[in-house]
Design brief:
Layout (H helix, E strand, L loop, with lengths): L2 E3 L10 H6 L3 E3 L6 H17 L1 H9 L17 E5 L3 H12 L3 E5 L11 E2 L3 H7 L2 E4 L13 H6 L4 E5 L8 H10 L2 E6 L21 H6 L3 E3 L8 H21 L24 E8 L4 H8 L4 E10 L2 E9 L3 H12 L4 E7 L6 H14 L1
Parallel strand pairs: 1-2, 3-4, 3-6, 4-5, 6-7, 7-8, 8-9
Antiparallel strand pairs: 10-12, 10-13, 11-12
Helix pairs in contact: 2-4
């Protein structure tokens, strides 16, 4: 295995550290579904404020229940966004178009879009927002970030939305807030544990709080569909496939989540007898010295190296390489003490058959 593509934003299904140590680069799709998620949040804000899901369920049961109590316009209300990244910032613009005021909290200072305003703490956001929506990754600092204390800090009758990661919210505490009336409604698209396939399975085997959620009013439960649109899936497929192709064909690691991000101008058919060395190695002193000693008798056209934690990655292009020299270069580099994975790439017809055979056999062994 050389590379892994995650056709989604999250990569917690992959042991990123172990993959890096094996020289396996991992790519995801951090941008392609952001619009779909932002639009879902807007739809949930309106649905919650008008109790649309409850009214729809009643109609399906043959009950006509026309009420206005507890139903609101979203114009003039305050939306609090936790995590002002790709999704949060797009949501900010959409919310302002509906006449909402936007505040946001992030661990780093981020320039706002439109009239949005960054607040200094999560508590500030919770106390002032009519709607709170989470858009944070699942990391040690965010797991369980919304619990009993945080829900008690929210405004009486506020609404809560989580389309981020299931483990960042204590759903039992949220259920208690809905049952007590502290929350007027909520929308949840992600859960700490989720069924492995479509069909029955969303029950108490996933958590004792699930039956409580089933009974809560004005609660929208969806099966992790934030990025489930035709447009998002098409874009995700294109984004990840492009990243995989660029890595396999050119060695480029831009966008890798577990590798140093390294790139060089692509070798073309006009670069006669050029080869590209892609060398993944442990981040140790003296590695570049050894590699440059091996390449000392060749013309190094360009070279770039970077490191991320314990892993380092070198790309180097050398020209005027004879067919008889290729194996010697590969063998010498792959036998250096810090070597994890060495690949040689070429676009030249002169090497096409030789490289295909040599690369296919040698890479699998190392």
């Amino acid at each position: 295995m050389v590379v892994i593509g995650c056709f989604c934003i999250g990569t917690n299904q992959v042991d990123l550290t172990h993959a890096a140590k094996k020289g396996i680069s991992v790519f995801n799709s951090p941008f392609s579904n952001s619009r779909s998620v932002a639009e879902l949040v807007i739809s949930e804000i309106i649905a919650l404020s008008r109790q649309i899901v409850d009214r729809s369920n009643e109609m399906h049961q043959g009950i006509w229940q026309k009420v206005s109590k507890g139903c609101w316009e979203i114009r003039g209300k305050t939306l609090g966004i936790v995590g002002y990244g790709h999704i949060g910032s797009q949501l900010s613009v959409l919310a302002e178009a509906f006449g909402m005021s936007v505040i946001y909290y992030d661990v780093i200072p981020i320039m706002p879009l439109g009239s949005a305003r960054q607040v200094e703490s999560l508590e500030d956001l919770l106390r002032n927002a009519d709607f709170v929506t989470l858009h944070v990754p699942e990391i040690p600092d965010t797991i369980g970030m919304m619990g009993t204390e945080e829900f008690s800090q929210m405004k009486q009758g506020a609404y809560f939305i989580n389309n981020a990661r299931g483990k960042v919210v204590d759903l039992a505490a949220m259920a208690s807030s809905l049952e007590s009336g502290q929350l007027a409604g909520a929308a949840i698209d992600v859960f700490p544990k989720e069924p492995g396939s479509n069909g029955p399975g969303f029950n108490d085997s996933l958590g004792e709080f699930i039956p409580r959620l089933h009974r809560c009013k004005n609660l929208i439960l969806t099966p992790h569909i934030g990025g489930s649109t035709e447009e998002a899936q098409r874009a995700i497929g294109s984004e990840v496939a492009t990243a995989l192709t660029r890595y396999l064909n050119y060695g480029t690691t831009l966008g890798a989540v577990n590798f140093p991000e390294v790139d060089l101008r692509a070798i073309t058919t006009q670069d006669e007898r050029h080869i590209r060395i892609c060398h993944v190695h442990r981040n140790e002193p003296g590695v570049l010295k050894r590699i440059n000693e091996i390449l000392g008798g060749h013309n190094i056209e360009k070279q770039f190296s970077d490191s991320k934690g314990d892993i380092a990655y070198l790309m180097a292009d050398i020209s005027k390489v004879g067919e008889e020299e290729v194996e010697a270069i590969y063998t010498s580099i792959s036998k250096t003490p810090a070597n994890i994975l060495t690949r040689l790439l070429c676009e030249s017809f002169f090497f096409s058959f030789f490289f295909f055979f040599f690369f296919s056999c040698s890479t699998c062994e190392r």
